[in-house]
Amino acid sequence: MATERTLSIIKPDATRRNLTGKVNSKFEAAGLRIVAQKRLRLTRAQAEAFYEVHRSRPFFDSLCTFMTSGPVVVQVLEGDNAVAKNREVMGATDPAKAAPGTVRKELAESIEANSVHGSDSLDNAAKEIAFFFAETEIVR
Ligand code: CMP
What we know:
The chain is α+β, with helices and mostly antiparallel strands.
């Protein structure tokens, strides 16, 4: 299996409820290693740039308002098949449709305030990691 890196964001609904450690323990239990991590407050410009692909969606404005409503924790996760594995750990976007045991099933508040973001492909992972981290900030 290939060792991959993926970008994860613990969203404002989760940091507000002090759930960073709970989310991280799920990543680590699944064999994902947190090789970079920082807590920050996204600016509106950063949120809009990060979610640019969703600009035409009806939820875009609300999503950017939510993502700037409190601190986030941005992370690089590393491991075998990290992109797909992280998406398994997160569960479906809509917590109502997420499988039992997943982060979103257990912790998410709504389809928007769904606690975590994870890259959806290896290509996007590379772009999303570069959006937040310099290579020197990622330590195995
Ligand atoms: P994420 O995986 O970060 O990717 C885009 C985000 O948009 C998603 O998680 C949700 O936070 C949000 N989102 C996706 N679909 C909807 C929707 N139908 N209504 C509101 N927010 C959504």
